[in-house]
């Protein structure tokens, strides 16, 4: 009769104590934060690697959720709606490596000491936040086209991205600044058309942010075609309000994601938005938002500057996250809309779109100033926190939103 042989350990994986008294485990817990160190993050992957994680390949990629991470983890966990993780069977000793990751956000740190057979709780917030600069770790390569009615660039600063990372596309910052009809930089930012008008330029970015311009400024067919190609290749796009011009236009493949209304029939301002808790991520979103802003109760979010441009979503293609009577305020959908399935039947999505029919906050802008002086110093509002949640969700690997999250 043959005996099953234990799997041989390698490197730091050999430091796992599996014979703790009383069934105890060597455990590490903590809370993962946005770069600002104050906003806890849901669905971050935290793990102890045996090997050094590989560098990311530059440029847009099809990053589907499969539960695999680089570095041969010996212990791995995800964060819950409070941003908390719990790693078990962690190697004990001094200088234990730890990786915190959401998509191409990744930070590699060292736990000073892990004691065997007990729980080590990391309380140093600075150890468990995502990087503010690329010197601290990996960050997605982003592009933003500043829009005249939605200062999304100010939200990026609030989540903790350092000003040094906002540069023109010829520089090495992780947020390349383009001007649509919003604020400018010094020196002047290039026109947004130089970004979305070139497929070669678009494919350099992991995430493209196209905020509201204050009007339905039509885009050329070539720009539309480039964005579709970019999304199908694995690109991520965040749009707000009038940026529906990128999604609803004659011949758009995204015309079927929902019932586009586009009549600008404004509801009450503010409007109470109801978070859809009928799917796992939606329930976590409601719990997370209450955790970070107790004023949000029962999944009800007070939304300033709401708009009515889409009546409802087509659940075949899209996921509604926030609604108000007769309209959808926030939705996402994966791309391509009808992808071929993987061998196991899973839709082979690659890219993702966020559409928010409300602004970050136009009151966050100091008129007449250039970025970053254009951004007023103010506290996070509840709806800004909601949009920050969606930005990190957009950054993550792509999966069907109605399914439980896969790290």
Can you offer a commentary on this structure?
The protein has six helices and 19 strands. With 407 residues, the protein is α/β, with parallel strands linked by helices. The protein has two domains: 12-127, Sandwich (Immunoglobulin-like); 142-395, Rossmann fold (3-Layer(aba) Sandwich), CATH 3.40.50. The chain is globular and about 65 Å long. The model is unreliable at 1-5 (pLDDT under 50).
* Oligomeric state, counting identical vs distinct chains: single chain
Regions with little confidence, pLDDT below 50 for 5+ residues: 1-5
Number of helices: 6
Second CATH tier, the architecture of the largest domain: 3-Layer(aba) Sandwich
The average pLDDT score comes to: 94
How many domains make up the 3D coordinates?
2
Count of extended strands = 19
Structural class: alpha/beta
Q: Helix-strand pattern, N to C?
A: EEEEEEEEHEEHHEHEEEHEEEEEH
CATH topology of the largest domain: Rossmann fold
Strand order of the largest sheet: 9-10-8-11-12-19-18-17-14-15
Estimate what percentage of residues fall within beta strands.
25-35%
- N-C termini distance: 39 Å
At the first level of CATH, what is the class of the largest domain? Answer: Alpha Beta
Molecular shape: globular
Helix content range = 10-25%
Instruction: Write down the Rg.
Output: 22 Å
Tell me the major beta sheet.
10 strands, mixed
